[in-house]
Q: What sequence folds into this?
């Protein structure tokens, strides 16, 4: 049986030199792992539209989506995740926890102190080397 392919987007939101890290909620798969906030791309949606919608739904704030930062394919037991991360800036509002357990603003050299979801790790490593 082939695993389903899940296309997701993640926002690397940078503010004052720090990066927004979000901890997944208890009821989610990969509970309590850290991630870049975002979610699945819906039918007839571009990755940028999906990311803006997800951040609005999950964190009640508006972002401006910049250039693509990284693309990772990771096979979980529930499916194969294709994660594309984008560099983003907050345009309006501050992140509010609706689905996540916790959020932290960290400098790039502090990111590896968190327990990241496997699909997010390549982007974390790349951020540590580039920022």
A:
């Amino acid at each position: 049986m082939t695993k389903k392919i899940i296309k997701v987007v993640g926002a690397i939101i940078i503010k004052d030199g720090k990066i927004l890290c979000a901890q997944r909620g208890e009821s989610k798969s990969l509970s309590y792992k850290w991630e870049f906030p975002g979610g699945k791309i819906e039918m007839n949606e571009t990755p940028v539209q999906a990311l803006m919608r997800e951040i609005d739904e999950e964190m009640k704030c508006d972002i401006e989506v910049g250039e693509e930062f990284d693309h990772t394919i990771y096979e979980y037991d529930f499916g194969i995740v294709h994660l594309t991360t984008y560099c983003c800036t907050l345009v309006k509002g501050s992140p509010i926890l609706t689905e996540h357990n916790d959020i932290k603003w960290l400098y790039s050299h502090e990111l590896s102190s968190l327990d990241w979801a496997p699909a997010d790790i390549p982007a974390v490593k790349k951020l540590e080397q580039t920022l």
